[in-house]
Design brief:
By secondary structure, this protein is α+β, with helices and mostly antiparallel strands. It has 5 helices and 5 strands; from the N terminus they run ααβββαβαβα.
Length: about 190
């Protein structure tokens, strides 16, 4: 029966396109172990998933959080989503700013990054079940500055954008930018 089955903690994660080593599998194993500890301690599946994903966001091989591939602007723009057992979801996208724009004039969140986007996605999920005044519908997806503002309003630490850039991510970015410039020069010379 299902009640007699052993608990299972499965972590599925997209790691990007750069090669990984056999040692990198230990990160995924560690994430699964952390998730399993939470489940065995009686935590919810959402608690276990957030804890496991945080382990992966701290490891540069996963292309989320620390060490992520940089955008063409040279910053990390993280995405995360989480779904509970009722099928409700919370998600954030393109979290990271290197721009003076902000939707709120009384503070400026520029050059910012969130270390654990999965936590902000979890907060969005939790907020999506709360009733709002005037029959408004709470969001289940926030992107860009709106996601950063939401994180700030919920006391999530806002970090300098370069604090999540690893040396290998910076090296990959510099190589890709040189390749891009080379291609652009070839295209311009043909014109």
């Amino acid at each position: 029966s299902l009640h007699d089955a052993l608990p299972i903690c499965l972590t599925i994660y997209r790691i990007g396109k750069y090669p990984i080593s056999s040692n990198d599998g230990l990160s995924f194993y560690s994430a699964a172990q952390v998730g399993m500890k939470f489940l065995k301690a009686g935590a919810t599946a959402v608690d276990a998933v957030e804890a496991a994903i945080r382990v992966l966001e701290d490891n540069e091989i996963t292309n989320a959080g620390y060490g992520s591939n940089l955008s063409v602007d040279g910053i990390v723009e993280c995405d995360a989503s989480i779904v509970d057992h009722h099928g409700r979801s919370g998600a954030v996208g393109a979290m990271g700013r290197k721009s003076p724009y902000t939707s709120r004039s009384w503070w400026r969140l520029t050059n910012t990054e969130i270390m654990h986007p999965i936590h902000v996605a979890r907060l969005v999920l939790e907020g999506s079940t709360k009733r709002l005044s005037l029959r408004r519908v709470p969001p289940n997806l926030l992107v860009g500055q709106g996601a950063v503002d939401f994180a700030f309003e919920n006391n999530v630490p806002i970090l300098p954008f370069d604090s999540v850039i690893s040396s290998s991510a910076r090296e990959r970015y510099q190589r890709w930018m040189k390749d891009l410039e080379s291609v652009d020069e070839k295209v311009e010379s043909k014109d």
